Amino acid sequence: MHFDALTLAAVADELNETLRGGRVQQVVLPDAHSIALEVYANRQRVYLLLSAHPQASRVHQVEQKPRRGVEKETPLLLLLRKYVRGSRLDSVETPIPFERVLFLRFDHPQHGPTTLVAEPMGRLSNLMLLDAGERILDALRRTHPKEAALRPVRPKLLYAPPPPQDKLPPLLDDAAVQELAQALSVDERLWRVLVQRVAGVSPTLAREVAWRAAGAADAPAADADPAQVRAVLAELWSLPETHAWTPGLLLDDEEGVVGFAAYEAHFSDEFLPVASISQAVAQFYGVAQRDAAGSTDPYAGMRNGVAALLDRAEERVRRQLAALAADEPEPGEPERLRTQAEWLLALSSQIQPGQ
Asked: b or e along 27-38 (b: 16 or more beta carbons within 10 Å of the residue's beta carbon)?
């Protein structure tokens, strides 16, 4: 499933409504890829999960209190406890149009403003804490300039947004429509062309655009009317302005829950509306069990950590046993050595040095 830029915009809308102005009471690491915040807002505790899991990156509220799943206190966790715990959440922003970047801006009574950046971008996902000048305090995943020359991520460096995509914006002007029309004149599915050529369009969103514009999720690109594609993209990308979200789950007759969307999706077998986009995302990942942070078991992260320690201990014992087995003498070798020793002892008086 695809946690895309439009889904992130819906989450930002929701968090501004439910969490803005709240105070952070606790920060934990549910697993090695995630951060969870307990925020007291609107006279209730709300739990927020931010995951940079390569196959399950996302941001959403969760119903159950996240539990610590990482025993070691990482440098990032210590900084979050210092600068974010006890702070007030001032705003939730999506600063880059059509991109999967979320800013959570906090203000601490002693340490001042900081920004927690979430970039749920699949295998490129990251979570970063910035100071008031938007310098990186630390990140879940650091990268060296030699590893990522265009965008290194290390403490004390200024935060740099992801490089711009060489794609058309989803809100197309006349010139962009002409360019899109040329791109559609290929022997390819419409949804694939949209993913390749239009920014902020995931496979899920592209299939919905294809269904609305051309009547089928797998419609050929050449059969699509560029003006109709433009209108559908404009309709869907107007949701961050209108706030007319209709979140729900995508259901398959055979596989059950197969996805989620912040708008009514028509290309799946069934669309089940839910109360919020967080509920949709949480239910999908709770069913999929893709990572400990998405599990309905609040102690899944800790259980997984213990299981990993047991696996490592078992592997270590297995290697030790293999090494001992390699040192074990061949069958009959002990008896032969004992016989030789007995003869040496019996004839010791007759043996000369160096013989």
From this structure: bbbbbbbbbbbb
Using CA atoms, how far apart are residues 143 and 123, in angstroms rounded to an integer?
A: 13
In 3D space, the residue among 234, 188, 183, 242 whose CA is nearest the CA of residue 213 turns out to be: 234
First vs last Cα of the chain: how many Å apart? 79
Q: pLDDT value at position 208?
A: 98
- Cα–Cα distance for residue pair 71/74, rounded to 1 Å: 9
Instruction: Give residue for tokens 């003498």.
Output: 329
Strands (E), the chain: 23-28, 34-41, 44-51, 58-62, 88-93, 102-108, 112-119, 126-130, 136-139, 248-252, 256-261, 270-273
Task: Tell me which long-range contacts 191-194 makes (C-beta under 8 A, separation of at least 24).
Answer: 191/217, 191/218, 192/221, 193/221, 194/229
Across the chain, which has 355 residues, the per-10-residue mean pLDDT values are 94 97 97 96 96 96 90 93 98 96 98 98 96 97 77 94 92 92 93 96 97 96 95 97 97 92 96 96 78 53 55 77 72 78 74 69
What's the CA gap between 80 and 86, in Å, rounded? Answer: 10
Residues with Cβ within 8 Å of residue 145, at least 6 apart in sequence: 152
Q: Which residue has the tokens 């055979």?
A: 254
Pairing relationship of beta strands 34-41 and 44-51 according to DSSP bridges: antiparallel
Q: Which amino acid is it at 168?
A: L
Question: What is the tally of helices (H) and strands (E) in the chain?
Answer: 10, 12
Fold (CATH) for 5-166? ibrinogen binding protein from staphylococcus aureus fold (2.30.310)
Q: Give the predicted TM-score (pTM) of the model.
A: 0.80
Please count the other Cβ atoms lying within 10 Å of the Cβ belonging to residue 321. Answer: 10
Nearest to 129 by CA among 200, 10, 27, 60: 27
Who's near 169: CB < 8 A, 6+ residues apart? 97, 98, 176, 198, 199, 200
